[in-house]
Design brief:
Spore Coat Polysaccharide Biosynthesis Protein SpsA, Chain A, 8 helices, three-stranded antiparallel β-sheet, alpha+beta, eight-stranded mixed β-sheet
Length: 276
């Protein structure tokens, strides 16, 4: 790696906040050259918008040459369709911008460091995930990757059991989450040449889900399964973390419920949001 350099004036974003680019061990010109090879996609449901923890970095990413596009989900939940469309749009963009080499997806409900795009892309590996955490009743807090143990079984690292994680390093993973993910161009070209749809959930999984009420495989797991079949390796950079913002529980406030008001007397105001 080139020697570490001091943060230049150009390494400040549009509001004067210093970024961590000076800690990458790359020259400013190297960072900028790599930035021009990245297309960033932020998938989101149209009504949700983009987290300020992502937008704050646009003042740096844009001038550095990163191409950015937001992809709203008009269907409200078909995320595998949205991600497949992002992949198709990326390959289309590569025809217009031959310098593009990496597609990075960051979910809209996260906060990330400004250097995360460079840290993922600089490995020049087929697929590199950052560390995004989620939570469930059974697992508690867990990282959205699976790692094979010595027995060959793949597990989600959990705070309950695994407890600690190295501060840095690259590990090969069995399944990579899509919340913070870098995909090299040739991976998607391979999918296309093999007539595979990236992130497509098989119809058999959907049929089973319709019977049980639960999808056994998400779009990111399905993507990793096809990569395994095609011999495409997946990795995670343990130094790249996102903060995952989960939505608040919303309900009509109890103090705004009137037990004396009859339903037939309820007056909905004309300037409320218009229905569809």
């Amino acid at each position: 790696m080139p020697p570490r350099v001091n943060v230049e004036a150009s390494s400040f974003n549009s509001v004067g906040v210093p970024t961590p680019l000076g800690s990458l061990g790359m020259t400013f010109d190297e960072v900028k050259a790599l930035s021009r090879q990245i297309l960033l996609a932020v998938p989101h449901r149209s009504q949700e918008g983009i987290s300020p923890g992502i937008c704050i970095n646009y003042g740096l990413w844009g001038p550095m040459g990163v191409k950015i596009f937001h992809v709203g989900d008009p269907n409200g939940g078909y995320i595998e369709v949205l991600r497949a469309g992002i992949c198709r749009s990326f390959l289309d963009s590569c025809e217009r911008f031959p310098e593009l080499k990496y597609l990075v997806m960051i979910d809209n409900d996260e906060s990330v460091d400004a250097d995360c795009l460079i840290r993922l892309a600089r490995h020049d590996l087929p697929i590199v995930s950052g560390i995004v955490c989620s939570a469930s009743e059974t697992k508690g807090i867990f990282a959205c990757i699976t790692v094979k143990t010595k027995t060959g079984a793949a597990y989600f690292p959990t705070l309950n059991s695994t407890k600690v994680m190295p501060a840095e390093g690259l590990v090969e993973v069995h399944q990579a989450g899509t919340g913070l993910l870098c995909i090299r161009k040739d991976v998607l070209e391979t999918f296309k040449s093999m007539n595979e749809i990236p992130f497509y959930i098989p119809e058999s999984t959907r049929r089973d889900g319709a019977a049980t009420g639960d999808l056994s495989r998400s779009e990111d797991i399905s993507f990793s399964d096809v990569c395994e079949k095609l011999g495409i390796k997946r990795y995670a950079d343990l130094s790249v973390h996102a903060k995952h913002r989960k939505p608040l529980t919303l309900s009509w406030p109890l103090e705004n419920i009137d037990a004396t008001l009859r339903a037939e007397d309820w007056d909905v105001k004309p300037h409320d949001s218009e229905g569809g």
